[in-house]
Amino acid sequence: MKNYLLVIVLILNLQTLVNADDIRDFEIEQISLYDSALNFFTKKELKDGKRNFYQTNKYTTSAIKKKTFEVYEVLQVSYKTDDAKFEILDISGISFMNYKKCLKEIEKIALDFDKMFPNTVKDDLYTYINNDDPSGKSKVSDIYWFFENRDVIVLACYYIDSEYGKKNNLKSEIRVSLSSDEFNKFLISESQ
Q1: Are 60 and 79 within 8 A, CB to CB?
Q2: pLDDT tens-place values along the chain, 192 residues long
Q3: What is the DSSP string of 52-65?
Q4: Confidence (pTM)
């Protein structure tokens, strides 16, 4: 039921943003790219949610779970580690969902995104192996919308129902991400 509600809320919220040309016009839990994380979370929440995903400490990502979130179960916000303003350079809304169901949902949501972001360059759905899982049994399916300034919105399904997922207490999920060009380039360089 919660997954059905997620889709309904997403679609209703998206319809108010038809033809958005700036990624800042799109919000996840009323938070947008380039906002200060401190406007929404305390320093303690950000510190307690800190995750060590990267080879360097140039950026920090915090995963936060709050009962007050209306759509998502978890938010991940990323910012430069030394930024006193905690400017959000990437934000992801995450809800746990069966992978096959997720693929159906992102097809529906993608149609709304296409209407909302007609002036973006869209990459079609692409599925690849999740490199975090050494067994090669986990995968990611995602669609990208690139804005003129190269900021990007990503709609993704993560299949993690493998031994790796069980061992690391991970679940399959749907994810909507807003990412600055700067942070996206960093992620690409980290994966090489």
Answers
A1: yes
A2: 454 444 444 443 444 444 567 898 899 999 999 999 999 999 999 999 999 888 889 999 999 999 999 999 999 999 999 999 999 999 999 999 999 999 999 999 999 999 999 999 999 999 999 888 888 889 999 999 999 999 999 999 999 877 888 888 888 999 999 999 999 999 888 765
A3: --SSSSSEEEEEE-
A4: 0.86
H-helix segments, 117-145 = none
Q: Phi and psi of 148, rounded to 5°? A: -55, -35
Cβ 105 vs Cβ 117: under 8 Å: no
- Do the beta carbons of residue 157 and residue 173 sit within 8 Å? yes
Residue 31: DSSP 8-state: B
Sign of the Cα torsion 99, 69, 176, 171 reads negative
In angstroms, the CA 48 to CA 66 distance is: 13
